[in-house]
Design goal:
The chain is mainly beta. It is 13% helix and 48% strand. The strands form three sheets. It has a ten-stranded mixed sheet with strand order 1-4-7-3-9-11-13-15-20-17. The protein has an eight-stranded mixed sheet with strand order 2-8-10-12-14-19-16-18, with no helix packed on it. Strand 5 and strand 6 form a beta hairpin.
Length: 283
C-alpha cells in the first residue's frame, strides 16, 4: 500500500513543478477550468483496482510577511510572488480507494490548516495527497517542506528555506537569501537581472541533475559542480577543464569562478547527476 502511495505521488509532482498563474476574474469560466486542469488535472493513474477522487479547495487570508508550508508525506508546493497584499492558497486534495465512495470519504476527512503553518491533516495515514499552489506578495519569507513532492518558487524576494526528499526543484526570478536541498530530484535555476539582489543562493541535490540558466553579463561568485555526472556549459567563465580533456579520467567536475567582478555567492551543486549551464539575454 505504501509503495502505491509513493508511486502515485511521483505522478502528481509533475503538475506542481509546472505552476500556472491563477486569474482573479471568476467570470471567465472557460479559462478557470483550463487553469484548474493544469494544476489538479491530468490522467493520474492510481492503479487498475483503485478509484481516484480530486477536490480543489481555495482560501485567501491576509499576508503577514512570512509563509510556512508543510507538504506532508505526499504533496508538492508551488509559490509565486505577485503584486498583491493577501495570500491565495489553492489545494489539490486527492485520494484513492477501492470504490469512489471510499475515495470520497477520505477526501472529505482531509482538513487544510492555514494558521501558522499551511498543512493538511487527516485521520487516515495513507491513500491521499495534498499539493499546494500559492500566490503571495513578492516580499515574503518562505519555509517550505515536502517529502514526496516537488518544490517550485518563482518571483519571490525574501529569506527562503526549503527541503524535499523525493521531488524536483524549480527556482526562478528570486532574490534575498535562498537555501534549500532535495535528496532525490533534479534542480532547475533561472537567474534574472544583472546580479543577485540579497545575500545569495545555496541549493544542493544528492541524486539529480542541475540545469542552471545565467543571463549574459551576470555578476556573481559562482560555485557549481558534480561528483558523478557530466558537465556542459555555454558560459565561458563557468567551464571546467577535467582530466578527460587531457586524455586522462576524473569523475569530479567543479568550477568556482568570479563573473563580471563578482558579487553575492551562487552555489548550485549535485553529487550524482549532470550539470548543464545555459545563457540567455536580459531584456
Amino acid at each position: 500500500m505504501k509503495a502505491l502511495s509513493y508511486a502515485v505521488t511521483l505522478l502528481f509532482a509533475f503538475y506542481i513543478l509546472n505552476p500556472v498563474v491563477i486569474g482573479q476574474d471568476q467570470e471567465h469560466k472557460a479559462s478557470a477550468k483550463h487553469k484548474e486542469y493544469s494544476f489538479c488535472g491530468g490522467d493520474s493513474w492510481p492503479g487498475a483496482d483503485k478509484v481516484l477522487v480530486k477536490d480543489v479547495r481555495e482560501s485567501t487570508f491576509a499576508a503577514s510577511g512570512s509563509l510556512n508550508v508543510d507538504g506532508g508525506r505526499n504533496g508538492g508546493v508551488s509559490v509565486k510572488g505577485e503584486n498583491r497584499s493577501d495570500v491565495l492558497v489553492r489545494a489539490c486534495v486527492q485520494a484513492w480507494g477501492s470504490t469512489e465512495a471510499e475515495a470520497k470519504a477520505i477526501v472529505s476527512g482531509i482538513r487544510i490548516e492555514t494558521g501558522s503553518t499551511i498543512k493538511a491533516e487527516s485521520s487516515s495515514d495513507e491513500n491521499w495527497s495534498v499539493s499546494y499552489q500559492i500566490s503571495a506578495p513578492r516580499n515574503t519569507n518562505l519555509s517550505l517542506t515536502a517529502h514526496n513532492g516537488g518544490i517550485s518558487i518563482k518571483s519571490v524576494d525574501g529569506n527562503i528555506d526549503f527541503t524535499t526528499t523525493n521531488g524536483g526543484v524549480n527556482l526562478g526570478d528570486l532574490s534575498g537569501s535562498v537555501k534549500g536541498r532535495t535528496t532525490n530530484g533534479g534542480v532547475t535555476v533561472s537567474l534574472t537581472g544583472n546580479s543577485w539582489r540579497g545575500s545569495g543562493m545555496e541549493v544542493v541535490t544528492t541524486n539529480g541533475g542541475v540545469n542552471l540558466t545565467v543571463p549574459d553579463g551576470y555578476a556573481a561568485q559562482f560555485e557549481t559542480g558534480t561528483t558523478n555526472g557530466g558537465f556542459k556549459s555555454d558560459v565561458a567563465a563557468l567551464t571546467v577543464q577535467t582530466e578527460d580533456d587531457k586524455g586522462g579520467w576524473q569523475r569530479s567536475k567543479r568550477v568556482v569562478a568570479s563573473m563580471n567582478g563578482g558579487g553575492a555567492p551562487i552555489k548550485v551543486v549535485t553529487t550524482n547527476g549532470g550539470i548543464r549551464i545555459g545563457s540567455n539575454t536580459n531584456e
